[in-house]
Structures are given as C-alpha cells and as structure tokens.
Write a structure and sequence with these properties.
The complex is a heterotrimer of chains A (250), B (236) and C (260).
Chain A lengths: L1 E10 L2 E11 L4 E5 L6 H8 L7 E6 L2 E4 L5 H9 L1 E4 L11 H11 L5 H14 L15 H14 L4 E5 L7 H16 L4 E4 L3 H7 L2 E6 L2 E6 L1 H6 L4 H10 L8
Parallel strand pairs in A: 3-8, 3-9, 6-7, 7-8
Antiparallel strand pairs in A: 1-2, 1-4, 4-5, 9-10
Helix pairs in contact in A: 3-4, 3-5, 4-5, 5-6
Chain B lengths: L4 H12 L2 H27 L5 H14 L2 H23 L10 H27 L2 H9 L4 H31 L11 H12 L2 H30 L9
Helix pairs in contact in B: 1-8, 1-9, 2-3, 2-5, 2-7, 3-5, 4-5, 5-7, 6-7, 7-9, 8-9
Chain C lengths: L6 H12 L2 H27 L5 H14 L2 H16 L11 H27 L2 H9 L4 H31 L11 H12 L2 H30 L21 H8 L8
Helix pairs in contact in C: 1-8, 1-9, 2-3, 2-5, 3-5, 4-5, 5-7, 6-7, 7-9, 7-10, 8-9
The chains are: A alpha/beta (250), B mainly alpha (236), C mainly alpha (260).
Chain lengths: 250, 236, 260
C-alpha cells in the first residue's frame, strides 16, 4: 500500500505539485492522466525521490517518511521498495540485457550470482527476450529495451512499479509489444502507478484513473467514471481533445 | 637569490618588446596553416587519388612528432635542398639570405597545417549530409554547395577547435628560440640572464602569454556567439 | 651548415638515440601519473561545484592551459626553489628530473581534469537515475554505472593527451635533461650531421606515437564493445548520429590534441 500525503513541489516560482494526496492499494493499478505540464511525471518521480518534494509524506508498505526531513538512509530505503520503468528506458549501456536485470540484484540485494542469474533469465524469458540475454542495449530495438527495463524492475520484487510514460519514446509499431507485457503483469496483481497517454490501455488495465492538471488532482475514479461520465469541466475538455486520437501515441 | 617583486614589472616591460615577433609568427603560421589545412582536409575528404594518401602521410607524420623536430628538420634540411637546387640550376639565390624567422614561418605553418586539417575535417564531418543534398536539390553544383553551404557551417562548427589551434600556435611560437629568433620566451631568457633574475623574468613572460591566451579565448567566444547564432535555441 | 647529407648516419644514430628512450619514457610515465592525480583533484571541485575550491581549480586550469609548457618548465625550475626556501624546503640539490616531471605533470593535470569532467558529464543523466531507482547508493551508482562508461568515453582524449605529452618532453633538454632530443643535439654537434640526427629522432617519436595510438584505439574498442559499431564511412560527409559517443567526443576534446 502506497500513501502520498500533501506532496508539494516547486521549480523556482512555479508550483508543480500542490498538496497532492494519493493512496494506492496493494495490487491496484493506478493510471495518472493529464496534459503535459500537469505535474504527473513529477509526482511519479517524487514517489522514489528522483525529484525531491518540498513537503509532504510518503509511505510505502511499512515504511514512512517525511519529505521535508528525508535523510540519505530514508531515501535509499524508499528506493529499495520501489522500481521504475523510464520513458527513455535508461538501460545501463555498458551491460547486456541479462546484466542489466542482474545488476541491482547483485549490488543492492546482495543475491548470490547463480540465483540472480536464474531469476533474471526467467524474467527475460517472460517478457519474450530469452534469445537476447547477451545483447547490449545499443543492439536492441526500443520495444526490446523497454521490455528489459520492465524485467529489471520486476526482478527487484518491489512494493510498487512506477511507469513513467513507458511507450512515449517508442515507434508506433513497437508500442503494442510493450503494452502487452505491462498488461500481463498487471493481471498478476503487481501494484503499479502508470503515467501514460495511452487512453485505450488506461481504460483496459487501470483499476483507477487519476486526472491531474495544474499540479492538482482534478478528478479520480474508475475508468468508466472518468472516461464515460467525467464530472469536472477540465477533464471533459482534456478528453474531448484526446479522444479522437485515443489510440495514437502522443 | 632573493625574489624581487618589483623586477617582475621591469621585466614585463622589457619583454613586451618581443610581442610583435611572437604575434607575427603566430599569425603567419595560423593563416598559412589554415590554407594548407583546408586543402589537405578537402583532398582527404574527397579521396583524391595519390594526393589523399600523401595528405594522410603528412598529417600522420606531423601529428606523431614534436613541433621542435619539424623546426630543426626545416632549419637544417631546407638549406641543403635550396643550395643543392640552386647550384645545379645555376641560381644566384643561396639559403644564407633566408632570415632566421623565415624558418620559423615555414616550419610552423607546416605544423599548423596538419593540425588544422584535422580541425577542418572534423568540422566538415559535423555538417549534416542533408545540407549538401538540399543544396543539390535546388540545383547548386558540388562546388557551390561546398563553398556556400558546407564550408560556412563547417567553419562555425570548427570554431572552438580553431581557437585552440591558434592558442597552440601562440604557445608553440616559443620554440623559435631554437633558431635564434627573439620572441617573448627568448627575450625573457635574455632579460633573465643579464639581470640574473630568472624566476621574475619567466613570471613576467608567463603573465604576458596568459593574457594573450585569455584574449584569444574571449575573442573566439565572441565570434562564436555571432557566427553560431543560427545554431542556437530550440530543443536539442 | 653541417656536413653533406648521408643516409647512413640516420641508421647509425637510431640505436644511439634509443639509449636515452628510457629517460623520455620515464618523464612521460611520471608526468602522466602526477597529471592524473592532479586532474582528479582539480576536476572534483568543479564537478561537485564546491565554492572557493572551484574558483581555484578554474584558475589552475586557466594558467596551465594559458601559458606555454616551455615557460612553465623554466618557471618551475627557477621559481619553485625560491618559493619553497622560506618554508624551510631546500630544493637546490633536487634533481632536474624532479622539476621536469612536476612541470609536465601539473601541465598534463589541467588537460586531464577537463577530460575527467567532460567524460563524466557525457554519461547520460538517465543512467544515474536508473541506478538510483533500483536502490543503489551514490557510490555504487558512480563506480558501477558512471565510471565504466566515462572511462570508455575518455580513452580517445586520453590518447591525445599521452601523445601530446610525449611530444612535449622534447623540450626537457632546455633544462639540461639528457633525453632523446638532448641526445640528438649532442650527436648533431659532434658529427655535424644535424639533419640526419633529427630525421632519426623524428622517426623514433613517430613510431612511439603511432604505437601508443594503436594500443589505445584497441583499448577503446574493447571498452566500447557495448556500443553499436559505427559503419565505415564510405562517403565524403558523415551523418551526425545523435547520442553516439563519437559525436559527443567531437565536443569534448580537451584541446590538447591541437597543440604542439
């Protein structure tokens, strides 16, 4: 269970996040939607402290911390309970697909090499890359890189996986294979927070949709509620703009 | 020996007299070097047969050997060549009438040419191929495309490296002492040994070079700002 | 001006010059070591933006890159003993090589510092974020993710640095060090066959530079085995690839490559 309380953050004078609270139950898939600049990516990056919130509280599982007084040890503990899948994949360039998945298991989890290896191989097979174990990222397509990125996140067995626009950098024909993989793991009951522009995917996979604009949560509810019967004017506007091209990558 | 701060100032003024020599060596070697470098780079880029192999050998040799050896080879080798030719062809010209600074001009230009050719080449390679294709598509000849489209862009891209080359030649001009040319360095040596105040004299010389280098850097930054105006802004 | 040209002298000078190769290489190795240590010390305050120290680093870089190595050599040789005398250090009996290596070392340090900073900064920010996101400490992220990649990026610049240093050592004779160039001068004076000596000298430098370049190129190739090999350029203008290390390098060459 993840609980964000009154998270605030500014870049200079611009308030990106204004007292945002959000709670995600174990096994829940929450999709955050919103126009660009709405603060959704910043919020996601606050969850694992890649962005430092000015104030607020973050709780993941049994660990709780006050953002204003975060110490190095706290940040490390928080990050070890979460994992992230990046828009630009961010695979370690100098490591093979297999090494990318194994790296944190060895270094962070101090897992014996044999065990790390067998777990990593299994996960890469699961995302359909059993044949690419020893390839370097530069020799993989975007879709394949992102699937390695997902395997890398899964391997850590985190309390939550944070997806930061995982398909935005992909060529349109590669989006499908990545969404497929995310859909599969969503069904397995892994807790996920997903920032995306893929409306069809959000409708399909999300237990709950959160619509953000201007640094605040405008509206949240089941996909049905938000997509079919939006209450707020801002949500309606956003959906009107986005719906004609709902199945396209933006 | 006791440090004499006031002598740094005295030495500074005495050494300043040699600035024209240093600057003329730098200017000549940079200008001739740029011409040699551009030709060398183009010959290699367009893969002109025979010439491009010769150009490669020239660049490899110069870049693989110290600038001082170039100067010494020219100083001792060129007179042999000239006098040999003059004798067999019956010219009245003899190498003794070449002023010492002439050897520095020639040798440093050859040195600069090789380094500059790499700078020009890298600049040309930084220009997007689409630029040349676009030039061809509006009907320009290859030469027009080179002169009006690629080369100006290459120059802009090469500016920081060109500035480095100029600074390199300024610093390299100190080697002229080897052929008895009195540049800033040699003048410092003279001032130092006549007054027996080595540290002070070289400190003054260092300050002069430091100032000149900073000037070149500033100027280059200014030019870059103006020339590179088209390249600014937008998303990378 | 000297005796007429005889090619035979070039060959007979080669082994004589090679006797002093050890001194040249000693200066190169000693200065390189000093330079890398100095480079790290100077680069760190700039990378971590430590006030005051950062300004000092900037001054160091500006001075050592802003004045000729020849002047630096004299400055160290004549100045250091005077500066340290009041502090109780007597350097009047220190060997010349000490001053030579120190001057070349600190000179190289300025270029090494820029090399280190530029290579580390050339590593994509996302790499560190990914390391942090998977729970690594900043030390782990640096040593396991950033450093190996920065090293690969640094090799070509390092290669230029070493070769430039090798060539610069030809000035050590001005302080009376009997390295290869000094030996060449002696041989020239002795035999009056100057041109032949300097041909032999140039050949030796050329072979060493060439070997160094090839060895470091092989090292670069190995360190970058994770990158897609760039296709051999078969046309006059190369497309600039976004994000390729080579393109990055074009912008970070520490500048020494174009000097001397």
């Amino acid at each position: 269970m993840i609980e964000l309380k009154k998270i605030s953050k500014s870049f200079g004078r611009h308030r990106v996040l204004q007292d945002i609270s959000l709670s995600v139950k174990t096994g829940e898939v929450v999709v955050i939607l919103g126009p660009s600049g709405s603060g959704k990516t910043t919020l996601l990056r606050c969850v694992n402290y890649l962005e430092k919130p000015a104030s607020g509280e973050i709780a993941v599982g049994d660990f709780k911390m006050d953002c204003a007084q975060a110490k190095r040890g706290d940040i490390l503990r928080l990050r070890r309970k979460t994992a992230m899948v990046f828009q630009q994949y961010n695979l370690f360039r100098h490591k093979t697909a297999l090494e990318n998945v194994m790296e944190a298991l060895l270094v962070v989890k101090k897992m014996p090499a044999a065990e790390a290896r067998s777990r990593s191989v299994a996960l890469l097979e699961k995302v359909g890359l059993g044949g690419k174990l020893d390839e370097y990222p530069s020799r993989l397509s975007g879709g394949q890189q992102q699937r390695v990125g997902i395997a890398r996140a899964l391997a850590l067995e985190p309390e939550v996986i944070l997806f930061d626009e995982p398909t935005s950098a992909l060529d349109p024909e590669l989006v499908g294979e990545v969404l497929e993989v995310i859909r599969d793991i969503a069904r397995e009951g892994i807790t996920m927070i997903v920032v995306t522009h893929e409306m069809g995917f959000a409708r399909d996979v999300a237990n709950r949709v959160v619509f953000m604009d201007g640094g605040v949560v405008v509206e949240e509810g089941t996909p049905d509620d938000v997509f079919q019967h939006p209450k707020e004017e801002r949500t309606k506007q956003f959906l009107r703009r986005i719906t004609p091209e709902a199945n396209w990558v933006i | 020996m006791q440090l004499d701060p006031s002598f740094i100032w005295t030495a500074f003024w005495q050494i300043l007299r040699a600035i024209p020599t240093t600057l003329s060596i730098t200017a000549v070697s940079v200008l001739l070097g740029f011409a040699i470098g551009t030709v060398t780079a183009l010959v290699r880029l367009y893969r002109v047969p025979v010439l491009s192999q010769m150009a490669s050998a020239y660049v490899t040799f110069i870049r693989g050997t110290p600038m001082l050896t170039h100067l010494l080879l020219i100083y001792f080798g060129l007179p042999m060549l000239i006098d040999g030719l003059a004798e067999s062809l019956g010219w009245s010209f003899r190498s003794v009438s070449i002023p010492m600074i002439g050897f520095a001009y020639i040798s440093f230009s050859i040195t600069a040419g090789a380094y500059m050719s790499e700078v020009v080449r890298a600049g040309m390679q930084a220009v997007d191929r689409g630029q040349v294709e676009a030039a061809h598509s509006v009907g320009m000849t290859s030469f027009q495309a080179l002169r009006r489209i690629s080369f100006p862009q290459a120059l802009a891209a090469a500016l920081p490296n060109l500035a480095n080359s100029v600074i390199g030649m300024l610093h390299g001009s100190t080697l002229a002492f080897a052929v008895s040319v009195v540049d800033i360095n040699a003048q410092a040596q003279i001032v130092a040994s006549t007054n027996w105040k080595f540290f002070e004299a070289y400190l003054a010389a260092a300050l002069i070079f430091w100032g000149l280098t900073v000037l070149i850097e500033r100027a280059a930054a200014l030019i870059e700002k103006r020339v590179g105006a088209y390249n600014r802004g937008g998303v990378a | 001006m000297g005796a007429p040209f005889e090619i035979g002298y070039v060959f007979s000078f080669l082994p004589k010059l090679l006797e002093t190769l050890g001194v040249t290489l000693l200066i190169v190795a000693g200065s390189l070591l000093t330079g890398i240590v100095a480079g790290f010390l100077v680069a760190l305050p700039r990378m971590y933006k430590i006030p005051v120290l950062r300004t000092l680093s900037g001054l160091y870089l500006s001075f050592f890159r802003g004045t000729p190595i020849l002047i630096q050599l004299f400055l160290f040789y004549y100045g250091l003993p005077e500066l340290l005398k009041p502090l109780g250090f007597d350097l009047s009996r220190a060997p010349v090589l000490f001053f030579v290596i120190l001057a070349y070392g600190l000179h190289t340090g300025a270029y090494a510092a820029e090399m280190i900073r530029a290579s580390v900064e050339a590593v994509d920010r996302g790499q560190v974020e990914a390391a942090y996101a998977s729970g690594m400490t900043s030390y782990q992220a640096f040593s396991r993710i950033v450093l190996p990649q920065a090293l690969a990026i640094a090799v070509p610049v390092f290669s230029n640095l070493v070769i430039a240093l090798l060539k610069d050592t030809s000035l050590a004779f001005t302080l009376g060090v009997m390295e290869m160039t000094g030996k060449a001068q002696t041989l020239g004076t002795l035999t009056q066959h100057f041109f032949e000596t300097y041909i032999a000298l140039a050949l030796i430098y050329l072979v060493i530079s060439f070997t160094l370049e090839k060895v470091l190129l092989a090292a670069e190739y190995r360190l970058k085995r994770h990158e897609v090999r760039e296709e051999k350029v078969g046309r006059s203008f190369k497309l600039r690839r976004k994000g390729s290390y080579r393109a990055v390098l074009a912008d970070i060459d520490a500048g020494k490559g174009g000097r001397l």
